Amino acid sequence: MPKKGNSVVYHEDEYKHEHDEHDYNHKHDTDHKHKSEHSHGHSHGGHVHAGSSKGEMKKAILLASTILVIEVLGGIISNSLALISDAGHMLTDVGALLIAFYAIHKSEQKPNDRMTYGYHRSGVLAALINALSLLVITVIIVWEAYNRLIYPTAIENSNVLFITASIGLVFNLYIGWSMKGHDENINVKSAMLHILGDAAISAGVLLSGIIIYFTKWYLLDPIISFVIAFIIGLSSWRILKETFFILMESAPDNTLFEQIAKQIKKHPQVLNVHDLHIWSLTPERIMLSAHIVVAEGVGSVVIQELQEMLQHEYQIKHVTLQLEHQHEIRHSTEMFSLDIG
């Protein structure tokens, strides 16, 4: 058995290209021949700061809480299920924003000897909680809408409904728009979907109120509530699906794995690649590890070049590569190895 050698650690800041196009035809580094037969390369990406997200979130929480109070009062006075449903969704919006704010705060904490990745995934967990809360509110709205469909109830004060729905629509659009620049974060995205969903609901309530005012067709109120439930359920399903794949350590894209495997094997010094793993810590933090097989005498400069390629072409900044020479391939078959053709 060959002896395990030292680890060679590279940081991305130490290797910056002066050109944009990556070129594999660099001079081969033969100075590493005398080093160990088994080398590791590791690069780290930069941090994603969330200070501005926290500021927007505080403002959103205050505005959403104001809308909630207005819609509850308006729904009770006008006896509109659609408006009360909107208020119920607004309650989950406030909860979603509070959870998102806490998750952003938590994710800023530094890694420690137990939480070695830090707390970045607290945002993913917050998104999961928000999505589940959306499903619960969907079921409640469907149940209430069904009862109203069987036993129609008149809208008592259309003016209050119009005013309340209009305020809700304007406020929600403003909150959603202010969060738009931060929606790469799945935590913020889930909170933003809550808010924009509520804006769509407010628009639906306003439209139904106008139609009911002129036609007295009170069945439209529960029908709009069913539409509201569908919108909420659809947005929650999308977030649930995304959080599921992240928590299951899946590759961010179905085609990414094979693309990267082929690109690595295009390197003139790479004979093969195995035990390749690509996963997301969060949607904006993609990570990769792999074993790179090279010929005898090939130095660890290959690792540096591959790391630069992965960062430049795929924006993967956290890369761990293990260099193996032809005679010492160590293929993991115990747990989660994946053969690459």
TrEMBL record:
The chain crosses the membrane at residues 60-81, 87-104, 124-146, 158-179, 191-214, 220-240. InterPro entries: Cation_efflux, Cation_efflux_CTD, Cation_efflux_CTD_sf, Cation_efflux_TM, Cation_efflux_TMD_sf, CDF/SLC30A. The keyword Transport applies. Residues 60-248 form the Cation efflux protein transmembrane domain. One of its GO terms (molecular function) is zinc ion transmembrane transporter activity. It is a multi-pass membrane protein. Residues 252-325 form the Cation efflux protein cytoplasmic domain. Residues 16-52 are annotated as: Disordered. It is found in: Membrane. This is Cation transporter. It comes from Tepidibacillus decaturensis. The lineage of its organism: Bacteria, Bacillati, Bacillota, Bacilli, Bacillales.
